[in-house]
Amino acid sequence: MATPSPERTASDAQEAEWRAREGERLLVVGIGASAGGLEALERFLRQVPPDSGLAYVVVQHLSPEHESSLADILARATQLPVELASEGKRIERDHVYVIPPAAGLVVERGALRLVPFDHRGARLLVNAFLTSLAEDQRENAVGVVLSGTGSDGALGIAAVKRHGGRTFAQAAGDARYESMPAAAIATGMVEQVLPAEEIPAALVKLAAERRHHPPESARGEAEGLRQALETVGRTTGHDFSRYKRTTILRRLHRRMAATGLGSVREYAALLEGDADETRFLAEDLTINVTSFFRDDGPFQVLEQVVIPDLLKRRRAEGVRLWVPACSSGEEAYSLAILFCERGDELPRPPQIQVFATDIDASALAEARRGQYTSVVERQVSAERLARFFTRRGDSYSVTRPLRDLCIFTEHDLVRDPPFSRMDLVSCRNLLIYLEPALQKRVIELLHYALRPGGYLLLGKAEMIDAQELELFEVVDKTERVFRRREVDRRPAILPPGRRALPLELAAPSRRGDPEVRSAADRSRSIVLEEYAPPSVVVDARGEIRYYWGTKLAFFLPPRAGAPSTNLMHVARRELRVELSAALHNAARQAKPVTYKDVVVEAEGVQRRLNIVVRPLPPSERDPDELFLVVFEELQSVPIAHGTPLDAPTLERHRQLQRDLESTQERLQVTIEELENANEALRSSNEQLQAMNEEMHSANEELQTSQEELQSVNEELNTLNAELNKKVDELELLYGDIQNLFQSTQIATIFLDRQSRIARFTPAATAVFRLADGDVGRPLSDFAARFDAQGVPQEVATVLETLAPVERTVGLVDEKRSFLMRMNPYRTPSNVIAGVVVSFIDITQLKETEAALRRAVEERERAEQSLRDEDRRKDQFLAVLSHELRNPLAPILSSLHVLEHATADTGAAAKAHEIIARQVGYLARLVDDLLDATRIANGKLQVERRPLDLRELARRTAEDHRVSFTTREVALEVALPDEPVWVEGDATRLAQVIGNVLQNAAKFTPGGGSVRLSLEAADPVAVLRVRDTGVGVDPAMIPRLFQPFSQADTTLDRRLGGLGLGLALVKGLVETHGGTIALSSGGKGMGTEVIVRLPLMAAPARVEVAPAAAPPRPRRILVIEDNIDAAESLRLALEMEGHEVAVAHDGPHGIRRARELTPEVVLCDIGLPEMDGYAVARALRHEPGLRNTLLIALTGYALPDDHRRAVEAGFDAHLTKPTTVEGVQEAIDRAPPPASPGGGAPP
Fold first, then answer.
1. How far is residue 217's CA from residue 316's CA, in Å, rounded to a whole number?
2. How far, in Å, CA of 26 to CA of 1089, rounded?
3. CB environment 920-953: b (16+ within 10 A), e (fewer)
4. Per residue in 436-459, is it b (16+ CB within 10 Å) or e — as a string?
5. Buried (b) or exposed (e) across 694-715, using 16+ Cβ within 10 A?
6. Distance CA 132, CA 158 (A)
């Protein structure tokens, strides 16, 4: 059995001692903050005086992974010492303690304790600290909540308030983040809401008022206290008038300090018109201090002695427990846990019922919720925590089985009838707050509530006095455990209903001092015995209750025979008539009666006295009718012994004496007859009294039955209230479930263990054909809209293995998919009661998955295409390098021949031919690259004119015949007799035919043949080039029209090429609105290329271009940073008859232009220091050069480059490499200069 985990190590006696010294104890201020709290803390501490006499503990949410400089920052804002909290550090006044990172902080017996930091759960450090501060410091705890997000601190503030502490919160408008202070204020437990910098002044004022209460008269204080309690009684219905005066005044002074009032009367007047303050006072008076397994000792006695005895004796009937003043329910749950644990040891444990009552409705609501902060971890063992509690975020809730054992209801132990037939009553630490008379009454009530042999548990500071021990026997004196005795005594059960409050409370007196009380008693005894007249107290029947006076024996002498306490029996015979008459008249008239000058002879002396009988008022302790009989003695007359009388006188005296004796004898006979009559009456009265006692006994039995019935009725009302509350909760829960079912789009079916439908959501009708009346029928009775053959077996599997099952199903008649998921249905008691089958519509998810797969596939294809393009790019660069280097070798060799051969030899001419051919090859290579780029960017421009495709094909074939002859390939040309007219650019179409013929020549081995044919097949002209060459793999054909693609990818580059030919041809043909196709039977089967172009009607006439005029010499300036290129161009132009000057950079060129005023400027774009665009703009600003022809010579050949050249001021744009003919053509297109230029170049 796990050992109970006590909340505190201090006993109740120590707590009582702490409370007695609360005026001397230190006020500890716990300050909680989070986001925005640093600024609020600095403002707070700047206003704290260095001698406030308070201690401050700062709990701020800090990162557990980094060192904190919070203490250093706060130290700069205050004169108080600021230090990090450490384990076991005693809290001192006028100090500030700051929580360290990665640790929690609590208070135990005035010292700080560090607790492990929980990285997994919510970090509610402020709640934990304030709760521990409240439990440890009670009335000396102060809780302050500053800026922060979330609700941390709200539960801690409530704990401080419940334990009698003071509470403050930062005003919402003053906090940077108001969530934390707003949550604290929402609890209704915050006393003052102030800006951060105003809270210290309120705290200092609070401390000062605790130390110095203003003087107030005892009478004024008593009157104010009476008024205050009457107001609380009228407002709340609870009578606190019999609480101990010191307790009430202590709570009253706390509220007076909070409201700033100086006297009890002023505070009582405030309560008359302030309902909120009345509620605050009532909450303070209901002292809610409790915890789980509070104090180890009593629970050990219960566990080892009491509970085994009750479980053994009440096995059949069940065990009933009552916890009066249960507060928030911890003690009730603790007792239930103990009984559950010991009951587990029995084969058939009895039923347990715990009745927990209190007058505080808010505390009962908290008890019913059964939800407690993480402080419960320190009060309950780990084993009990796992079994009886469920963790929910930062708190713990009692399990449903434990909750069902406890019934919580509002009940006033003093006002309401007690419960009955209880086996154990735990009433700990309630009696210490009550006056002795009320304590005695409560003890009698608890005796009545217990069954024979029932147990009573009191607090450590509470004890049963000797008189009350008639009702209880001691089981354990140390732990205050008692057992009910069977005595013939009935408690004075208080009637239900509200009673009027007493008019005044007894003011404190010095009668409590033992020394003073002893002196008073002794003095009173001496006065009564020596100086008071002889007196007796008798009841209405004359029975003596009390007597005093040393001379009482003169009137009540002892007599032989059986002793008697009846006044008529023990009084002197001479006094009986007067005594009887006086008692009778005093009882009848209800006022004092005096019989004067009564004479009695005693011890030879005639004593004269007055007999006074005074009725006594009844008291609560002795309600019988009593009378005080006082014998007031007058001056006595002694019997004379003088001179003898004469005979007549003596005879007369004797006669009178005989007459008196005779009269006295007759009177005595009459008295005796009267006594006999009285005795007969007494006998009758005794019989009547016996009958009355029987009737009283019967009335008591009836009253007992009525009280038991009333107690049973109270229990029934309690059970009914609990049941109604549960019904309300169930109705609310049912409404929530219905709304959830209506609003959720998830089809869900609840099955019992026999696969019968218990409940289903409306969305389930989309999967099964269900109606509201189908609840209770087996699921197999219904047709599903999907393939449900395996559903019964899957349900059985879930019930057997308790493991979830899920699979995807599709509706037969709709294109919808669902994820069917089966889970075991677990009750709150963890019992498997069936299966929950849910169908989650994943149609959109499936479609999204399909779209995602398509996107992934497209991306993979794109990535593959990019990889292919990248591979082709690498291949192209390798091929381009090869193709650019190949012509350089014959050019270099030819240059070597030119250097060593004479001008008239054939070798020189051959070298010139080779250089020209290779340069032409390089130019075509660059042109192909440029054309491919233009086509790809859509920038290729064509000049469409009517042309004869037949004539163009013939000329192009003749131009390339040399290539065929060189390769020993036969070229056959088959053209129609009539012209074939198309609209197109002659240069570009010649490029198309030439490229196709070049490919045929390259890929046809020697001895093969190529046939070029043309025909007009309206509406298109069909051009065919068929060879007998190496052929193409059909799989490769689609790729041949892509840039940089070639059928031959080996290192054998004898055939050369960049793989741009067919791509370029395809772009040019499509630009002309035509199509191109390639076919091949495979490797070695030859290839055929077919080009189709739209036909047009024959034009009316064909313009013949005029013969070109010979070029006119011009004055030319060449600006080129490449010296070789500049010199070679100068020489070539001079050979054409032009005057040429050269500059190698922009500034030099501008100076030369100013000097020479050239007609034409050939300027490179990529010049150092100053590019060609800047040179053109500068020349255009020169007045004498505005008509100069500016021609750009550049390797930048994109359309955007041409646009930029025009914008800079160039008249023409020539792409390198260019020929002298190209330059001359550009010059010839320019208009002649407006005026002659300057001098010749140097």
1. 61
2. 107
3. ebbeebbebbebbbbbeeeebeeeeebbbbbebb
4. eebbbbbbbbbbbbbbeebbbbbb
5. eeeeeeeeeeeeebeebbeebb
6. 12
Average pLDDT over residues 1036-1063: 61
Ordered DSSP codes for 331-398 = HHHHHHHHHHHHHTTSSSPPPEEEEEEES-HHHHHHHHHTEEETTHHHHS-HHHHHHHEEEETTEEEE
Give the active site residue among 12, 152, 358, 931.
Answer: 152
Express each pLDDT in 27-63 by its tens digit. Answer: 999 999 988 888 899 999 999 998 888 999 999 887 7
- Name the residue type at position 150: G
Beta pairing partners, 633: 609
- Could you tell me which of 97, 59, 54 has the C-alpha nearest to residue 206? 54
For tokens 């057997």, name the residue.
Answer: 800
DSSP states along 807-860: EEEE-SSSS-EEEEEEEEEE-TT--EEEEEEEEEE-HHHHHHHHHHHHHHHHHH
Closest residue by Cα to residue 674 from 536, 576, 599: 576
Residue 932's φ and ψ, nearest 5 degrees, are -60, -40
Give 389's strand partners. Answer: 398
CB 1170 within 8 A of CB 1153: no
Tell me the two tokens of residue 974. Answer: 């088959």
Q: Decide if pLDDT at 336 tops 90.
A: yes
Based on the residue annotation, tell me whether 34 is a catalytic residue of this protein. yes
Which whole number is the average pLDDT over 92-108?
Answer: 90
- Which single residue is written with the structure tokens 């108001």? 178
Q: How confident is the model at residue 880 (pLDDT cuts 50, 70, 90)?
A: low
- How many helices (H) and strands (E) the chain has is answered by 35, 42
Report d(CA 302, CA 455) in Å as an integer. Answer: 10
For helices 843-900 and 906-937, give the axis angle rounded to 10 degrees: 160
Q: Which among 5, 12, 34, 1045 is annotated as catalytic?
A: 34
pLDDT at 1234 over 70: no
pLDDT in tens, 302-332: 999 999 999 988 777 789 999 999 988 999 9
What is the band of 267 on the pLDDT scale with cuts at 50, 70, 90?
Answer: confident
For residue 861 the two structure tokens come to: 């294809």
Please choose, from the candidates 262, 173, 171, 167, the residue with its C-alpha nearest in 3D space to the C-alpha of residue 213: 262
Burial of 259 (0-12, 13-18, 19+ CB in 10 A): middle
Decide if 1138 is catalytic.
no
Alpha-carbon span 3 to 828, nearest angstrom: 27
1215: amino acid identity, one letter: T
Residue 1158 CB neighbours (<10 A): 26
Closest alpha carbon to 1002 in 982, 1035, 1027:
1027
The domains found in the chain, sorted by start residue, are 26-211 (3.40.50.180), 218-274 (no CATH), 296-484 (3.40.50.150), 525-638 (3.30.450.20), 744-841 (3.30.450.20), 941-1094 (3.30.565.10), 1115-1228 (3.40.50.2300)
pTM above 0.90, yes or no: no
CB 112 within 8 A of CB 132: no
Q: What is the amino acid identity at position 450?
A: L
Mean pLDDT of 1012-1028: 92
For this structure, is 659 an active site residue? no
In the 8-state DSSP scheme, what is residue 480? T
The pair of three-digit structure tokens given for residue 352, joined into one six-digit string = 């347990």
Taking only Cα atoms into account, the Rg of the chain, rounded to an integer number of angstroms, comes to 62
What residue type is assigned to position 267 of the chain?
A: Y
Six-digit token string for 692: 């009355």
Side chain identity at 959, as an amino acid letter? D
Cβ–Cβ < 8 Å for 393, 374: no
Q: Which of 12, 61, 132, 711 is catalytic?
A: 61
Find tokens 């609360």 and name the residue: 22
Element holding 1017 (H helix, E strand): strand 1009-1017
